[in-house]
Amino acid sequence: MLVSWNWLRRYVDLPMTEPELSERLSMTGLNHEGTEVVDGETVIDLEVTSNRGDCLGHIGVAREISVLYELPLCKPQPEPAEGSGKASDSIRVTNVFSDACPRYTARVIRGVKVGPSPDWLAEALRAVGIGSVNNVVDITNFVLMECGQPLHAFDLAKLAGDEIVVRPARPEEEIEAIDHKTYTLDPEMCVIADRDRAVAVAGVMGGASTEVTESTTDLLIESAVFTPLSVRRTARKLKLHSPSSFRFERRVDPQGVDWASRRCCELILEIAGGTLEQGVVDTEPELPTPTNVCLRLAQVERVLGVKVPDDEIRKILTALGCDEQTADVDKIHTCPPSWRHDLTREIDLIEEIARIYGYEKIPDDSPIPVAASQKRPFDEAVSKIRDVLVGSGISEAMTPSVVPADVDELVSPWTDRQPLTTETALLKGAKTLRRSILPSLLDSRHANQAASGADAELFEVAHIYVPPAEVDGLPEEQYCVAGVSGQDFYQVKGIVETLLRRLGIAAVPDVRQVEVHGLDKAWSIELTIAGELIGYVGQLCPDVQKSLKLEKATTCFELNLDAMLAAAHLVPQFRSVSPFPSVSRDLNLVVDEAIRWVDLAASVRAAVGPVLADLKYVETYRDPAKDGEGKKRILMSIDLQSPDSTLTNAQADAIRGDVVDRCNADHGAVLLG
């Protein structure tokens, strides 16, 4: 942001030197990038952070100086003289895209004389790197650099139908911008149109078909608010950036829209002549309600480590434009000014107090209370989970909590209730609070495949939002870990079992085949421990895989962290290693098809007792000719090891016999001879 020294003097006295001012501004967040002299005028280059869009104009910088040096701010109060005609009779404005344009205003000036700008105007713009075009265009640029509110002037005679329509662009609609390049638009982009065609890319650049030339006599002055997301998306997609888009991407002051319009009209009447028609056509005259922020005075000292007098705190907040609503002995309720979108929390106000009070006033040796921190069980569990999954070749992802509705519908293991939605899209087309992490990861897997052809193995630890059963209830925020992988079902199930063991979950999870929306019923299971649902493992159903255009079969899992923590033992349990050798025995049992391995394994563990060192599943084999229909063979291996002595063959065979008897009693298992 180039700031002219002489231009600043229009709004605030500058008794300090340029180096002193640059140093002070740098200490308060407006970093000094450099100073140059343009035609004998000092110009300062300031780095303005993305949260300080209010400083993208000379008045905003002057306001900062007035607060820092306790100087009065002299902001012009434009009151342009109006003629007899009404603006509403000359132009109609229809806004059918309020998500991208919350407010649009239009004023009409007739009988202007377009020509060269006066020297003072051309020199002011040249100092900040803007060339002179003509008096009308230069005035819109001057007001832009003055207050940070972008404006646009249309040649009214070139607007078809005497109307302005704020709407989405039509598919493949084209526009020639004032840079005389043609751009192809899409329906996600907001345009300003007349009856027949788009005449401007909203918030980015005007169109050549309605630009102001020397033959122009009647003007429509646009001053509007376009949402940052819409402008940023459009500018990036078109690769078309401008001073206007730069400011809209960082938010403009909604209450400054009308001021900028009046200021522009006043200067046009003064320099280019003409008659301003009465009134303004405004699509949203109701301004947004300001946010109320509570500041606890004790928090200022606690955070900064130095006592700032209460009167000084109030003085700073008032100077910044905050409107004190109520004040108690220990707290202040205040409304930040409309131009400070970044002041929404108590900590934001504390930062402002420190910034204006002066970081240099905080002693270097100011005592900062330090307390030893202890890792919470939750954090320790998440750390162990990350270790297991990363060690298994799965990369951690971070995806948004809001997703498009069609993405959320892909997989929903936890609930079939309708998802919650936000009033406005927080991301591109995303308004749905996700009911599962899996849809986000599947979408990311698809994006990775489309971009590089790679099959991304992804996991994420994050919140999901289970909709309430009651209409007025609150959603259940559930912490989960989920993953998607190209490995087969048994490999992913093994990773999940390893993860559970790493958390010290001694109980063997009960496994049951279930039907889950989005997963293949033949390859989907739920895991429970002591009747508590832990999570799901399953293979993506072919329809979902096809809709996402995934080339390889994908196996998914999603686990409830809270449920796992309840069963976990994060403190490692030590068990002495037996000095005696182990003995192995294999068993090949014939059981009914319905018998599950997990149930059979539980019977084996109960029969063997403490001398069981390991139990391994080997394979399942079916031979209807020998065993009969509805039967299967399960081959397993057991390792036996006593902590007190070496087990003899006779003892091992006796234990093996106990296992066979227990499995026969519990499941009708027969040992294959």
TrEMBL record:
- Tell me the superkingdom of the source: Bacteria
PROSITE patterns noted in UniProt? B5, FDX_ACB
Record's keyword annotation contains Ligase: yes
Q: Does the keyword Disulfide bond apply?
A: no
HAMAP family reported in the protein's UniProt record: Phe_tRNA_synth_beta1 (MF_00283)
Where does the FDX-ACB domain lie?
578-672
Q: Name one GO molecular function term.
A: RNA binding
Q: Where is the B5 domain?
A: 288-364
Residues holding Mg(2+): D342, D348, E351, E352
Catalysed reaction equations from the record: tRNA(Phe) + L-phenylalanine + ATP = L-phenylalanyl-tRNA(Phe) + AMP + diphosphate + H(+)
Q: Which cofactor does it need?
A: Mg(2+)
Task: Indicate the enzyme's highest-level EC class.
Answer: ligase
Give the organism, scientific name: Rosistilla ulvae
Keywords, in A-Z order: Aminoacyl-tRNA synthetase, ATP-binding, Cytoplasm, Ligase, Magnesium, Metal-binding, Nucleotide-binding, Protein biosynthesis
Pfam families given in the database record: B3_4, B5, FDX-ACB, tRNA_synthFbeta
- Which subcellular locations apply to this protein? Cytoplasm
List, alphabetically, the GO terms of the cellular component aspect.
phenylalanine-tRNA ligase complex
InterPro entries from the UniProt entry: aa-tRNA-synth_II/BPL/LPL, B3/B4_tRNA-bd, DNA-bd_dom_put_sf, Fdx_antiC-bd, Fdx_antiC-bd_sf, Phe-tRNA-ligase_IIc_bsu, Phe-tRNA-ligase_IIc_bsu_bact, Phe-tRNA_synthase-like_B3/B4
Protein name listed in UniProt: Phenylalanine--tRNA ligase beta subunit
